Amino acid sequence: MILPGVVHLGAENCVTGSCHLLQWNGLNIMVDCGAVQGSDRAVPVSEWPAAPEDIDFLFITHAHIDHVGRLPELITAGFHGDIICSHPTRALLGVMLRDAINFMDYAEGESEKIIDIIDELSWGFEYGQSFDLKRGAVFSLGRAGHILGSAFIRFVFKHAGDEYSVLFSGDLGNVDTPLLPDPEIPESSDLLVLESTYGNRLHENRKDRLFRLAQAVSTTLEKHGTVYIPAFALGRTQELLYELDRLFTEEEWRQRFPVFSQYDSGTAPVAVFVDTPLGAEITEIFSSLSQFWDREAKELLIAGDHPLDFHGLYSAVGFHDHLRLLDYEKPAIIVAGSGMCTGGRIIDHLKQALAKPENHILFVGYQAAGTPGRDIVRYSRKPDGYVIMDGERIPVRAAVTQLSGYSAHADKNGLVEWVKSMREKPAGIKLVHGEPPAQRALMKALGRQGYNIF
Ligand SMILES: [Zn+2]
Ligand SMILES: [Zn+2]
């Protein structure tokens, strides 16, 4: 049997922008079609081994922009195959793309048309079931625990009594993530295409990172400062609301941090603003998909504590609300996008906030090289550090903390354990979606366990 070939079509250096082409028996199957980040350069469509109109299927592991951001480009380039993903991903796809397309060069009518085409082409599928594709190819989706709807995708190619399986991890989450069931154990597969974002890091456990979040928020509020949290609208924003709700509600945290117990249980000590219309919209979609939550979140809901809501939580949806929030003088907690400070409303906040030592900037996600978020973390450690935002030189005097445990990605041990949970070793593992040091460290860790990496 001729084995399927896998080509990476994301960033030329294989670091950001998840985008792959799987070719077998005349079938062209794409897995993800993500935008690259920071200073990475994407492989142009004209250099792909298959023309977009010849691609039969596009599978989407989850709705993050680094996995779906080039979908409009793919549609304009002539793709008209089926788009396959989980049900929650399908529910999130339109909102994510509608937001992303605003930053692309499309006329207004045209962008709506593209979104409509994507909607018509896309299909939601159940987790844990096998579905026939075409010509002896079969696929199934497994829970990846990264964000709501995230899936790893396993393909089986059958020909004349032979079969060969390929597993794409997509982005893999941590165990014990708020709202989400843990990543599932994948079936053994011949080839594994594995993400490696945190292949060289070990995260704190949930309790430790919740403690650090509590500590950062509590010390800032005691100093009458404001906490700014740059966060991705999809996933991280909801995770944070969930954790803040825990801090303001659970007796344990209220006793350990007196600032949280100023008011009744379930009431925030200061106003918490979600200053991202996209984040607010996605939070509503998350709320409507409670059948995909984990047990803990479902139990809270049944007990009458909506895990994504508490007293003192406000959404700044309109731009006018955002402008008013910039004039808000009392201490607050402000969650705004983008997560790596590459644009969005967080920029206006940071331009005002960074120079004031009473404030605290809390990074809760991965900061890619070449992004302002990475610069802020870096220059906050230097005396007289500053960053350039919108052409202005802004001194970094605010406290800056990076809570790595809040990553939606599994760490080195998580990745290795997930691979080890497969009953049989894959014949080969291809590492993607990670910076070279992360890929090297993960390669070493897996190599020590006897895995074959290439
Ligand atoms: Zn992701
Ligand atoms: Zn990703």
Short summary:
This protein has 454 residues and is an alpha/beta fold. The protein has 14 helices and 20 strands. The protein is 31% helix and 23% strand.
Q: Sheet bearing the most strands, described?
A: 6 strands, mixed
| Strand arrangement, major sheet | 1-2-3-4-5-6
Helix count? 14
CATH secondary-structure class of the largest domain: Alpha Beta
Shape: globular
CATH architecture of the largest domain: 4-Layer Sandwich
Strand content: 15-25%
Which fold name is given in CATH as the topology of the largest domain? Metallo-beta-lactamase, Chain A
Rounded mean pLDDT is 94
- Helix percent reads 25-40%
Would you give an account of this structure?
It is a single chain. The protein is α/β, with parallel strands linked by helices and 454 residues long. The protein has 2 domains: 5-201 and 408-448, Ribonuclease Z/Hydroxyacylglutathione hydrolase-like (Metallo-beta-lactamase, Chain A, 4-Layer Sandwich); 206-406, 3-Layer(aba) Sandwich (Rossmann fold), CATH 3.40.50.10890. It is 31% helix and 23% strand. It has helices at 65-68, 71-76, 87-101, 108-121, 206-222, 236-249, 251-256, 277-288, 295-302, 319-326, 346-353, 372-379, 412-420, 436-448, and strands at 5-8, 19-24, 27-33, 57-59, 82-86, 122-125, 130-134, 137-143, 151-159, 162-168, 191-195, 227-230, 267-274, 311-315, 332-336, 360-363, 386-389, 392-395, 399-402, 428-432. It has a 6-stranded mixed beta sheet. Strands 7-8-9-10-11-20 form a 6-stranded mixed beta sheet, with no helix packed on it. The model has no long low-confidence stretch (mean pLDDT 94). It binds zinc ion (ZN) (2 copies). One zinc ion binds at residues 62, 64, 146, 171.
